[in-house]
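Below is one such protein, fold included:
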Amino acid sequence: MDGALATYGWMFLPFVVAAGSGLLAAFIMQARMEVALARQREGLVEIRGLLASQRRAMDERVRATEETVRRKALDEFMADIRVEERHYVKESTSLFLSQRSLVFQERVYFRNIPLTDWVEREYAVAEGSWGKALPETRVRQAGDALVRQPAGLLSHHQHAGGNDE
């Protein structure tokens, strides 16, 4: 029986070696596949990080571009708005009173379209009467009632002159 076992052992030995080699090759291939998968995952993580940073950079660029466009549009709009000013001297006389006043008029335009009616500011320059009156400013918008303000309350830009008409 020892000879029969040895014969059977030598007969099955190539099958056992082939099975062992197959298992060893399978384990080595499994390890190689895991290493390749780990490398791919590392690459994927790097690419995702790169994409996330590019997305943030792109979002910042888009916001900056939108802000620039908004600012440019506002600047263009403001460039189209203008204020037309004119002034003249008005003299009014009555029986006991002669009065000279300086009248400033302003009007706001968008391109060539008037946005407001003429706003008048009237400053008393000289009065000839029995008594000396306090200097007054009269602010009037076309169609509105006359509003009187003391002359000391005027701001500097209201004293600026415009084009004569």
